[in-house]
From TrEMBL:
<keyword id="KW-0479">Metal-binding</keyword>
<dbReference type="Pfam" id="PF02775">
    <property type="entry name" value="TPP_enzyme_C"/>
</dbReference>
<comment type="pathway">
    <text>Amino-acid biosynthesis; L-valine biosynthesis; L-valine from pyruvate: step 1/4.</text>
</comment>
<keyword id="KW-0100">Branched-chain amino acid biosynthesis</keyword>
<feature type="domain" description="Thiamine pyrophosphate enzyme TPP-binding">
    <location>
        <begin position="401"/>
        <end position="549"/>
    </location>
</feature>
<protein>
    <recommendedName>
        <fullName>Acetolactate synthase</fullName>
        <ecNumber>2.2.1.6</ecNumber>
    </recommendedName>
</protein>
<dbReference type="InterPro" id="IPR029035">
    <property type="entry name" value="DHS-like_NAD/FAD-binding_dom"/>
</dbReference>
<dbReference type="InterPro" id="IPR011766">
    <property type="entry name" value="TPP_enzyme_TPP-bd"/>
</dbReference>
<keyword id="KW-0028">Amino-acid biosynthesis</keyword>
<dbReference type="InterPro" id="IPR012846">
    <property type="entry name" value="Acetolactate_synth_lsu"/>
</dbReference>
<dbReference type="InterPro" id="IPR000399">
    <property type="entry name" value="TPP-bd_CS"/>
</dbReference>
<dbReference type="InterPro" id="IPR029061">
    <property type="entry name" value="THDP-binding"/>
</dbReference>
<dbReference type="InterPro" id="IPR045229">
    <property type="entry name" value="TPP_enz"/>
</dbReference>
<comment type="pathway">
    <text>Amino-acid biosynthesis; L-isoleucine biosynthesis; L-isoleucine from 2-oxobutanoate: step 1/4.</text>
</comment>
<keyword id="KW-0460">Magnesium</keyword>
<dbReference type="InterPro" id="IPR012001">
    <property type="entry name" value="Thiamin_PyroP_enz_TPP-bd_dom"/>
</dbReference>
<feature type="domain" description="Thiamine pyrophosphate enzyme N-terminal TPP-binding">
    <location>
        <begin position="20"/>
        <end position="135"/>
    </location>
</feature>
Amino acid sequence: MEKISISKAQSLQHSEELITGSEVLLRGLLKEGVECVFGYPGGNVLYIYDAMVNNPEFKHVLTRHEQGAIHAADGYARSTGKVGVCIATSGPGATNLVTGIATAYMDSVPLVIITGNVPTTVMGMDAFQEADIMSITMSITKHSYLVRDVHDLPRIIHEAFYIANTGRKGPVLIDIPKDVSNYKMLYQPTTDINLRGYNPYPSINRMEIDRLIQAIAAAEKPIIIAGGGVVYSNASNELLEFVELTKIPVTSTLLGLGGFLSGHDLWLGMLGHHGTYTANMAIQQADLIISMGSRFDDRVTMKVDGFAPCAKQIVHIDIDPAEIGKNIKANIACIGDIKDVLKYANTKAVPSQSNRWIDTIQENKTKHPLRYKDSESKLKPQFVIEMIHETTGGEAIITTDVGQHQMWVAQFYKFNHPRSLITSGGLGTMGFGFPSAIGAQIGNPDRLVISVNGDGGMQMCAQEMAICAIHQIPVKIVVINNQVLGMVKQQQEIVYDKRYSQIDLAGSPNFVKLAEAYGIKGFRASNKAEAAHIWQEALKIPGPVLVEFVIPKEENVYPMVLAGTTLDQMIMGNFD
């Protein structure tokens, strides 16, 4: 038997401490580099919150609702590329996170969600505030853990972060029963991860990429669809190099905005349901479609049977093999991280035969720009977004809620950098915009963060203004107020023959007074002159500000492609 020296024994004694599961959790989070946790306490996480008292390094932001906590963690993750973390108690606390978990899952956002649960001794007995959160969220998490043994907790923490932030990213749930959070164990830090069968970084198939290069060389009308995967894989520079080498125009999905420089001559704008004329027509006329990190969702393709009818080949580049061929059949499948695929592709890239094609596209951009009917007496939302863009130079982080204002931002704000648009794409979650801005601002303290909201979505998480006021988080809160559920109204007007039902928001609060009630300066504008002056004033204020822009309720988003029609069947709007 090996004799242990006194010095070695002392070393072992110092490396192993008898601490509770709650302290293990906090140390594990700090070891993972977590800068901030967003949460809301309750009975079954009180041991965890008690452990925070003796951990001054641990930063926690107390939101005013669990949904605010998870959306803030989501905004932090999207804007930084790091894992967002939130915590809630069992039962209603955990179930209040469900919408935010689904939001992150649909958009492949890396989150670690920590929930408390009832003690293991009463699990399954319908104890007070008991809910089987693992079963509830099974279809909207990348992976889940129920921690029954405190000794598993150090490993689980590091596995959760690794799973959340590798491969196709997504939310991971750690459910910790109350007694487990108080059990003590001899703690030894660990970073060992051994997940059998989990291969988040598949090796790229160079033969498939070579086929892509051959297809480009033969293409006369190629187009790239840049999706959210370009942003998540940090492949913006590689994409720019690829475009310069191949001379292929680029259109972006909603989540892909910012992944390719909006000011580039070969950028066509967003495609799809509210996409530009140039982008949608290019898709319908292209002979080669190259999708990068886009899953061909229904808001991009619209009527699948009529999508890209002239395409001789469709290329799908994605890290998730399950997406290949799921919605649109791919002739060439390049599975792998987009950054890795493009790095190899750029070593062999050749120009496409696209000169005449580019001329046609530039002509379409000139003849069919995004338009709206401006007014001196009424404040148009498109003008507001253009004004915000001009005053920020495209350098701000913009978060949006969901609705017409979201589409106006996508159309009229030109993003210079990736991770600058924070928005709910796949799930379309109202209430997301404002709390996600809080997370984005905490993650990017030196950048201007602007939260653009409708008057409907703003009321779903308005209580989080307390956080901005207390901590002086300098988010500029924009409310586009038309006193109506705008996107629903537009659908009812066009599709349901103006049979308007349950869309009137006229009883909403005075947003300026609401902001002031929380201790935040508020402004209101209802014409262009007021808007320009007030917005400049808002930008000068160092702390949080709310600016309400009152717009006409009849304003709609155009172009628009109706469900069941093809991308070239656009409703352009009457601007004469």
